[in-house]
Amino acid sequence: MTFEKACKLADIPDGGVIGIEVGETPVALVRRGEEVHALYDVCSHAEVRLSEGEVYDDTLECWLHGSCFDLRSGKPTGPPANKPVPVYRVKIDGDDVLVSLSKES
């Protein structure tokens, strides 16, 4: 499994989300303390950037229609989305956040 540097840990606000590109893949990075989650940064319902949404507990809410996605599984936890988004493995190496584009689940 190959990991690529995505950003610095400090680039992601605690309790927040940023959108980045890993290669040509849009990735939403969500930070909760020292834990970082990586999800495909396109809503499965409306094809807009999830990184423009809000983080609530263990979910990322799409800003357009309010679909929520579980940070660990990518599964929708509320309508209107009914398809999951891919999630990716994350490693923290010192101050760097590394992401593997291989699907975690």
N→C terminal distance:
14 Å
Strand order of the largest sheet: 1-10-9-4-3-2
Helix content: under 10%
- Average pLDDT figure: 94
Strand content: over 45%
Oligomer classification: single chain
Largest sheet: 6 strands, antiparallel
Written account of the structure:
This protein has strands spanning 4-8, 17-22, 25-32, 35-40, 54-56, 59-61, 68-70, 76-78, 87-93, 96-103. The relative contact order is 0.25. It is mostly beta strands. The two termini are 14 Å apart. A 6-stranded antiparallel β-sheet has the order 1-10-9-4-3-2, with no helix packed on it. The protein is globular and about 40 Å long. The chain is 0% helix and 50% strand. Pfam families: Rieske. One of its GO terms (molecular function) is monooxygenase activity. Keywords: 2Fe-2S, Iron, Iron-sulfur, Metal-binding.
List keywords for this structure.
105 residues, mainly beta, six-stranded antiparallel beta sheet, four-stranded antiparallel beta sheet, 10 strands
